[in-house]
Amino acid sequence: MSRVFLTVLDAVGAGEAPDAAEYGDVGTNTLGHVIEKCDPQLPNMAALGLGRIPGTGYRWNGPVAGAFGRATEQSKGKDTTSGHWEIAGVRVEKPFPTFPNGFPASFIEAFEKAIGHKCIGNKPASGTAILDELGVEHITNHTPIVYTSADSVFQIACHEDIFSPEQLYEFCRIAREMLQGELGVGRVIARPFFGTPGAFVRSGHRRDFSLPPCGRTLADAVKEAGMESIGVGKIEDILAHQGLTQSDHAAGNPACMDSLIRFMKTDFEGLCFTNLVDTDSMYGHRNDPVGFAGALESFDRRLPDMMKLMNPGDLMIITADHGCDPCFIQSTDHSREYVPILAWTPGMTKAVDLGTRKTFSDIGATCAEWLGLPERFGAESFADAIRS
Fold it and tell me: CA-CA 20 to 30 A from 211: which of 62, 118, 234, 305?
């Protein structure tokens, strides 16, 4: 009985991708810059080969027993949805639309009519700055705050005392149904918050409403084979609840790690797919390299607990979905970067260089082969390299 634990460290990119110039991301290197600036202590990932991934710059003189490499994104874009879908075997050929000038007035009018409330905002903005700017008006007039970013998102922020999270989710479901075709953003995101003017705080009740994957994913293949296909964190949102047999929508890295550990303590055959979001949402987008480094250290400290729970025949893969370089002061948005790959199975005694993979989907192909499934998603598995 084999289990695969696939963990995405959200936004932990490994250096500018070959086509970074097309996205305005020349000079980005999330891992490399955080390591250079903050010197985080990551001995457990280093022992799997972190420092041997080009561009990370992590200094480590100890032994390495694990597989390491990086992967190039083939999908068009640099967002959570396209990154996770490609990891799971589905490449996005046409980029999701973005709205640097806000959404069309005709759409906003139709959306306001559908939800029965006027909206304010409708522009690209930092998720925390727009609360400072429009939070009081929102509370006074009961007007949902809508905004976007450089990513393909339609975000709605509401104070939990004005609109409950359940009301906000219904607004998002309505927006998701309306945002199709040329307006088909990758994600509609509920951004509930609480607190008082000058001290507004986003709550842990965030939810993402994604488009359904545009193809058959690793999760679909695992579920259809009669195995467990488990999502932890926002995986259920990214996959639009498709292909999962169980899900725990835990909020924040500590809760997601606790959930992952609980699943590791159970007997099952199949996949556990986890997203750890804090590096992206709390630190990358806020240009906070110190916090980013701390989140990496927190994960690294829990890695030995994960490894102790691995059974013979289990596989662990740690990767990312894009970059969000907190040291790249020109932007607070995602960056087009390679993603790191670290892989380990009990009994590994040597270092295995996986090189630079042509697509994130090599990860999905590897997971499928490890579980005895025929799917390769037009990619190349590196399962044999890990077993050798």
Answer: 118
For the chain, the structural domain boundaries read 3-93+212-387, 105-210
- Measuring CA to CA, which residue among 26, 372, 364 is closest to residue 227? 372
Burial environment of residue 371 by CB neighbours within 10 A (0 to 12, 13 to 18, 19 or more): buried
Determine the Cα angle at 246 with ends 236 and 340, to 5°.
55
Residue with tokens 């037009």: 378
- For the stretch 175-197, pLDDT in tens is 999 999 999 999 999 999 999 99
User: What are φ and ψ of residue 147, in 5° steps?
Assistant: -160, 170
Q: Are strands 120-124 and 145-148 parallel, antiparallel or unpaired?
A: parallel
324-362 tens-digit pLDDT: 999 998 888 899 999 999 999 999 999 999 999 999 999
Beta strand 153-159 with 145-148: parallel, antiparallel or unpaired? antiparallel
State pLDDT tens for residues 133-160. Answer: 999 999 999 999 999 988 899 999 999 9
Q: Rounded CA gap, 2 and 367, in Å?
A: 10
3-class secondary-structure state, position 46 = helix
d(CA 285, CA 277): 11
Domain 3-93+212-387 has CATH 3.40.1010.10: no
At 256, the amino acid letter reads: C
